[in-house]
Specification:
mainly alpha; globular; membrane; Stage V sporulation protein AE
Length: 118
């Protein structure tokens, strides 16, 4: 049980270190770093490496933004097997729609409760 927590912390931390290096070493802005991490997660899923990482690291690999890229590709590939080319498009939206909807709803509620500083 302790090993599971340890590896989740290490893998999640390494993903965060990569993101920080994109900021500090490569002088990227948040949008660029975000895009690169999402694409890396998508590529890792496309070549079949993200699922073993999820099995090994658990929340350490499923919480960071790389997991969003994984979800996009994973959903697209699953639906493409069932519905062909149109499944590529619908699969991405079907798998990620709950998370995106939750983010929009909670951001709206937060905006209603707290005053933004501009």
């Amino acid at each position: 049980m302790l090993a599971m927590f340890f590896w989740a912390f290490v893998i999640g931390g390494l993903i965060c270190v990569i993101g920080q290096l994109l900021f500090d070493v490569f002088k990227m802005n948040p949008g660029q770093a975000l895009s690169i991490l999402v694409v890396c997660g998508a590529i890792l899923d496309g070549i079949g490496l993200y699922e073993p990482l999820l099995d090994f690291a658990g929340a350490g690999a499923s919480v960071p933004i790389t997991s969003f890229g994984n979800a996009l590709v994973h959903g697209a590939m699953q639906e493409a097997e069932k519905h062909g080319l149109i499944g590529v498009i619908t699969g991405m939206f079907e798998v990620t729609s709950a998370g995106i909807s939750a983010a929009i709803i909670f951001a709206f509620i937060g905006a209603l409760i707290f005053k933004a500083k501009g």
